[in-house]
């Protein structure tokens, strides 16, 4: 199965294990909660989907690589204690709490979240000293004398033996303790994740043209390994984007550090250079703004497949960026609005504006820190919380310096600031809708409404979570016309009707 299907299997298992009865007890006892064993080649996203699962379930996530665990870190250290058995004092050996289980309790204290996932990676690479106690752990969830707390689910992962010489084959008794979930590399599945995570458009375009280059591991030649994984493409994407922001040159040497294949690395580098040339020739931002020239239309219409796919991804990248920003800004506004309402209410009650805003900043930071420690917050939502903190800090400074803690002046400052946020969101939304419309105008003029390139564009818009979220929310007559379906009523609601008027009560 694909990594996406594997994620759903594990997510469903965790949700089932956390179902409680009417007395608050887990319906499946901890002894019968078979750990999932995610088996798949390296670098396809096994660890990444665990972060996504934690974010979707809202429970803690703790990860350990079992290949690096010793018997002592898992079991604890032996100690001699005195006990009284049948009237006689005796000395017996016991174990201190396992580092792994102690970390579970520490995390619960830090996050105030009682449930969680213990993710044990490379489970089939445990050391010889640790192997004998793993069967007991898988069955009873016990290391030494200490059992993992109720509400904690175990998920394990590992690579097949052909990818890792350290793998120890499990016996039948051990396999009988697992829910085995096997997955394999799949570009189409990863592409959805690539859109979600903002992978560089040149990479998505290149892999569209060469899907067979998405994943390759060949260790037959000890002096010339070939290693290209999903993780390599994602890491390369992030590095390219940082290089571009800082104005540094992306070289073949840089690409070769991630794509460890002497044939594929130069091919991608050549494509990346051409991709940047096409960015200069077509100026996709100008097209999305409505500056469509006949010269660009004519060139696109005559372009070969490689150029057409590159152009499509250049335009997709532009609309995706503004649409993703629109959705994020809306979430931020909806979350900051009740905070500003509370601030204005308390200002009108005579409390210090600076003190009230400072309290909201501290609370937001504390909740963000807890979410980060629990690993239940996505990069997008983390960015939203940073936006909120940044805005609150700016309001606090402005109210201190200009409002001088005067109730009426501070109220006006905050009201104006919120209005500016709404106007900013309106502008980005308008830019997104205009960009989408102009992209359709250009592509239809260059290729035609029923062309393979247009069908490819519609397919990409459909699998891209950011563009589909935007279209569902704000609508697009052109999109529904081109896919040949009746327009769906947009789910857009009253965000732009939010205001702080009810809090403006001057004496």
Major beta-sheet overview? 5 strands, parallel
* Helix-and-strand structural type: alpha/beta
Q: Tell me the span between the first and last alpha carbons.
A: 66 Å
Task: Assess the beta-strand content as a share of residues.
Answer: 5-15%
Number of helices: 20
Number of domains: 3
User: Approximately how much helix is present in the residues?
Assistant: 55-70%
Mean pLDDT rating: 88
Number of strands: 11
Approximate shape: globular
Query: Strands across the major sheet, in which order?
Result: 2-5-8-1-9
Describe this structure in words.
The protein has helices spanning 3-17, 46-57, 71-75, 99-111, 131-140, 172-175, 187-197, 201-209, 230-246, 252-258, 264-282, 284-288, 294-302, 305-348, 353-374, 379-403, 407-447, 452-463, 465-474, 477-483, and strands at 36-39, 60-65, 78-85, 88-95, 116-121, 142-143, 146-147, 152-158, 179-182, 216-218, 226-228. It has 507 residues and is α/β, with parallel strands linked by helices. The chain folds into 3 domains: 3-70 and 103-184, P-loop containing nucleotide triphosphate hydrolases (Rossmann fold); 188-282, no CATH class; 318-503, no CATH class. The strands form 4 sheets. It has a 5-stranded parallel β-sheet with strand order 2-5-8-1-9, with helices on both faces. It has a two-stranded antiparallel sheet with strand order 3-4. β6 (142-143) and β7 form a beta hairpin. α4 (99-111) packs antiparallel against α15 (353-374) and α8 (201-209) runs antiparallel to α14 (305-348). It starts with a helix and ends in a 24-residue tail after the last helix. The mean pLDDT is 88.
């Amino acid at each position: 199965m694909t990594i996406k299907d594997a994620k759903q299997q594990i997510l469903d298992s965790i949700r089932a294990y956390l179902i409680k009865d009417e007395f608050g007890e887990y319906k499946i006892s901890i002894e019968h909660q078979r750990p999932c064993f995610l088996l798949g080649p390296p670098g396809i996203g096994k660890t990444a989907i665990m972060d996504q699962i934690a974010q979707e379930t809202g429970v803690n996530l703790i990860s350990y690589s079992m290949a690096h665990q010793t018997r002592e870190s898992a079991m604890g250290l032996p100690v001699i204690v005195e006990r009284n058995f049948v009237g006689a004092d005796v000395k017996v050996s016991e174990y201190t709490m396992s580092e792994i289980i102690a970390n579970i309790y520490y995390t619960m204290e830090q996050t105030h979240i009682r449930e969680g996932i213990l993710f044990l990676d490379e489970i089939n690479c445990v050391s010889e000293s640790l192997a004998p106690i793993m069967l007991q752990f898988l069955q009873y969830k016990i290391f030494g004398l200490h059992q993992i707390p109720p509400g904690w689910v175990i998920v394990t992962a590992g690579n097949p033996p052909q990818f890792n010489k350290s793998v120890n084959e499990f016996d039948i008794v051990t396999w009988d303790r697992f829910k085995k979930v096997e997955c394999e590399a799949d570009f189409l599945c990863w592409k959805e994740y690539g859109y979600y995570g903002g992978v560089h458009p040149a990479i998505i375009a290149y892999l569209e043209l060469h899907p067979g280059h998405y994943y390759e591991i060949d260790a037959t030649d000890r002096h010339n390994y070939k290693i290209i994984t999903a993780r390599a493409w994602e890491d390369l994407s992030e590095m390219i984007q940082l290089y571009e922001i800082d104005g540094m040159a992306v070289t073949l040497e840089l690409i070769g550090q991630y794509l460890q294949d002497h044939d594929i690395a130069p091919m991608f580098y050549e494509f990346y250079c051409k991709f940047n040339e096409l960015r200069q020739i077509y100026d996709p931002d100008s097209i999305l703004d409505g500056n469509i020239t006949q010269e660009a239309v004519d060139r696109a219409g005559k372009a070969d497949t490689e150029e057409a796919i590159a152009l499509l991804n250049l335009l997709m990248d532009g609309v995706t960026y503004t649409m993703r920003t629109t959705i994020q800004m809306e979430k931020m506004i909806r979350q900051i609005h009740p905070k500003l309402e509370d601030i204005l209410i308390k200002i009108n009650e005579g409390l210090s504006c600076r003190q009230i805003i400072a309290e909201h900043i501290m609370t937001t930071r504390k909740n963000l820190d807890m979410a980060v420690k629990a690993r239940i917050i996505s990069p997008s939502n983390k960015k939203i919380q940073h936006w909120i903190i940044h805005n609150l800090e700016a309001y606090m400074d402005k109210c201190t310096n200009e409002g001088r803690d005067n109730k009426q002046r501070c109220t006006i400052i905050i009201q104006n600031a919120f209005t500016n946020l709404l106007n900013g969101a309106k502008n980005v939304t308008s830019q997104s809708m205009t960009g989408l419309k102009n992209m359709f105008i250009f592509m239809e003029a260059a290729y035609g409404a029923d062309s393979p390139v247009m069908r490819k564009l519609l397919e990409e818009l459909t699998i891209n979570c950011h563009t589909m979220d935007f279209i569902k929310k704000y609508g697009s007559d052109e999109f529904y016309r081109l896919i040949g379906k009746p327009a769906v009523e947009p789910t857009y609601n009253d965000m732009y009707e939010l205001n702080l008027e009810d809090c403006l009560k001057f004496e």
